[in-house]
Amino acid sequence: MPWVNQEMCNGCGICMDECPVGVITLNEMDKAQIDEESCIRCGKCHDVCPEEAVRHDGEKIPEQVEENLEKTRRLLEYYDTSAERQAFIERMIRYFNKERKVTEFTIEKLKALKAGIAGSAASSANS
Ligand code: SF4
Ligand code: SF4
Description:
Layout: E1 3-4, H1 14-18, E2 24-26, E3 32-34, H2 44-48, E4 54-55, H3 61-76, H4 82-126
Antiparallel strand pairs: 1-4, 2-3
Bound molecules: iron/sulfur cluster (2 copies).
The site of one iron/sulfur cluster has 13 residues, from α1.
C-alpha cells in the first residue's frame, strides 16, 4: 500500500491528477493523503511523484512492529502475575504466528493466480 511522506510532499497535486480512482486528496496542510481503503494499488502515484514522497509499504515495517509491541505492552497492564503475563505474551505469539501463516498461504495462492493468468494469456496468444 503506497503512503505519502508528509515532509517530502510539496502539494503539487500531480498524483491526484494521475490516480485512476480519485482517492488522493490534499489535507489541511496541503499535503497529499491516500484513502487506503479505496486505493487499487496501481502504483501510478509512486511513479509520477517528482519528490519521491509516495513511499513503499515496506518502509513501514519497523513502525508496525513497534505498534504491535506497544499494543502488547499496553494490554500487559491488565495482567497481575508474572505467569498471567507470560501466558498473555504466548497468546500474542500464537496470534502473530497465525497471521504469518495467513500471509504465507495468501502469497502461495496469489502466485498460483498469477500463473493462471499468465497461462491463459499464453493460450490466447497461441490460438
Ligand atoms: S505528486 Fe508527490 S509531491 Fe506532488 S502532491 Fe503527490 S505526493 Fe505530494
Ligand atoms: S496506487 Fe493507484 S489507486 Fe492507489 S492512490 Fe496511488 S494512483 Fe491512486
